[in-house]
Amino acid sequence: NVNPFWLIETMSVRRSVQFVYDVLSPYSYIGFELLHKVHLPQWKNVDVEYKPIALGGLFKLAKNRPPAFVPSKGDHMITDLKRYKEYNIVDINVPDNIYHVLFEKGSLQAQRLLTLIDMEHKDLLLPATTNLFHRLWEHNLDITRPDSLQQVCVDIGISPADAETMVERLKTDDAIKNQLIEATQMQVEKGVYGAPTFFVGDEMFFGSDRFDHIHHCLNKQQH
User: Fold this and answer.
1) Closest CA to 28 of 183, 210, 212
2) pTM recorded for the entire structure
3) For residue 67, is pLDDT > 80?
4) Torsion-angle region of residue 198: left (phi > 0), alpha (psi -120 to 50) or beta?
């Protein structure tokens, strides 16, 4: 028997789930993988809106701080992340230098790239997001190098020449920078304090382990 709350089959009107994320966040990656491989195949008439933000900026605006900044949480986070692979839930490879990746390299240029793609090539936002997530958390590749970001663009169908121009713009184009800042500020104003965060209408769900709540909310909306 299938729990009816895990299936959304009778909606006549399409519903939308917003996914607020930064590819640097390992739990955003886990949430993204679970969303696409486990939950979306079971949902009907549900679209996903992808909302890239700058997580470092969001923490500052929300007066929050990364869990890894709390020593006991940081130590357990690595164990917790490795269990996802050990238990065959999500294929995640935690980098040996994870704190260097998270707090020194960061993801600002990657998030600006996603912002630019959302602005000018919206239909490529999902494949670009997928590529960056897998590049970092499955293959442990550098997502800060310009050549790496250019390869992301080429992988999703953008010409090498255009890819080079796009990546060059990330450091100089104020429209891209401002759009990411404004998108991040907007999420903070909605109550977002970390990533991943999901929205169904005005209902907010924080974390990669809230899919049961999202299922209930989506089912409630169809009645």
Assistant:
1) 210
2) 0.93
3) yes
4) beta
